[in-house]
Amino acid sequence: MKRVVLIVPLVALLAALVWWSTRHNPGPDTPAIANASRVAAPPAELVARGEYLARAGNCMACHSARGGTPWAGGRAIDTTFGTFYTSNLTPDPDTGLGRWTATDFWRALHEGRSRDGRLLYPAFPYTSYTHVTREDSDALWAYLQTLPATQQASRPHVLRFPYDSQTALAVWRALYFKPAVFQADASQSAAWNRGAYLVQGLGHCSACHAPRNALGASEDADKLAGGLMAGQNWYAPSLGSPHEAGVQGWERDDVIALLRDGITHDASVAGPMAEVVYGSTQYLSASDLDAMATYLQALPAAPSAPATGRAITLDDAQRARAARLYADHCANCHGEQGEGSGPIYPALDGNRAVTLDPPANPLRIVLGGGFAPATQGNPRPFGMPPFAASLSDEDIALVVSHIRGSWSNAASPVSVIDVQRYRGNLR
Amino acid sequence: MKRLFESRPFRLPMQRLLLTCCALFSFSALAAPLVEDTMAQRVLACTGCHGAEGRAGPDGYYPRIAGKPAGYLHNQLLNFRDGRRQYPLMSELLQTLGDDYLRDMADHFAALDLPYPAVRATGPNAALTRGEELVRKGDAARDLPACASCHGDALMGVAPAIPGLIGLPRDYLAAQLSAWKSGIRQAHTPDCMAQIVKQLSAVDISAVSQWLAAQTVPAGARPAAMPARDLPLRCGGVPASQTAGGAAR
To answer: What is the ipTM of this complex?
Structure first.
């Protein structure tokens, strides 16, 4: 009985919140001002600043389809709730942002609402962008207005019930989203604060590096404790854990080099992070890179979640085959004892990326191979071949198990089921 | 002592790099991996599937890339990266590489002048006859140009952008033509191959692939430097000066 008494006002409160947040709320719609602002071209300085900020947010990566017109949207984002299609941000009046104002744009970033008041899905990471200042929002807006207008209607999202309704979205927002502004911490340095602003805001690092709950909400976003990227079969490692991707114990210059060049003297980025370096962080100014590094290095060190304790053991014959596969396919570049060769072929002995749990990343790297991103600091990267087509699932499981459990590495073996789970479209 | 680097490939201070490497790994005790600062070393990611030096994969599918025209290879790298060709392993591999570096890779494989393996002879059959006819003469009744009219009389392609058709596995050829027919494989617009292949039947595709794959590449064969005559169609990615009516059309 007591529980019912509690539930009734809760439901009523939730319903009120839903009503409040879904009601049509077009805000100050002022086409006359909007038109006037388009006539007077924004100052070049503001546009340049907006372009830089757009790089910092890596906006174009999502708002362009592969091979499509940049900024015209259409990239599919696969999630456990369905597929989202990104929108057209060019100034086309019918299919893009041509009828929007700077205020409409700011409200999208800050409140996650479209021009017509519709709630936006948090696949557009406004849970992070809400921290962006109005000033930076206006600069981004000024830049977007200078893009060539492209007529390309945005594809409707394809979502499963009940995620396809505004009501469900309103409930989600009532539970997990509150517009906020970035609050500087007076006890920290200016660099730390700038880094926090970039990492928590435009950089939207938590979109991947924070775990998500069953409803897709980031948990303790600022801790960046690592998360599985459901649609991509990669694991974004914890930036708090020294056993995953924490950089607390690194040299500052190495953190900067990784973000700028995609490579340090003994590490390189792969998978989705290579895309981030390629499209975003390689373009950041020295002072912003220093700020981000300062903030990331100051993240409280947190232990990784305990390993899931996979009950897999290899018999002697499997161990022998695994070692032979390593010798035949890996040792040439990574060394007989996993010692690697400088930045080009990273050491596998003691390499945090290969011992991660879940083992998504070492499996994806062996399946799909890859190049470090081509950056100004590393314009002609070396590559690793994919093994998805040349090795069976069994052999991939064996060789990855060998790497995870040899030399000083002591991570659990992986199974054929793991290989199949993370293989995705790599066949 | 094996070389670690031939030259300085990175912005990182070389001395520190060497010091760190030496501090981390004892090269004297181990057979240190040989890393050369060459394109061949960089494209080991490619030759894993496309065979040593890009001579074709061992499985009868991954095509030879060595010696193909540089412009063609560059276009294909762009096509995979930008979604005009669909093969996730290729697309993912190229996703974070820029146009210039892909051009370097294309130039590297195009410059390799390696002998082709001999093809096992097969007896004559109706499909081979039909295939040869389509390749050499086309089908005027269907306004179908001969393959040779663009890909060169020797069928070794034309620099810089038209690929050779012989020296490739039958399954690969049939898969590419079928993919073009269904729209899965595309080229830069105007996509002349798409226009042609849409007119081919499944039987035509099989016959053409069978005949082409049965041809042995003569020693020293290279892509032609120039087309023998204007190309019959306008093709994106091919210099306008080589196509029908040049740039005017």
So the answer is: 0.88
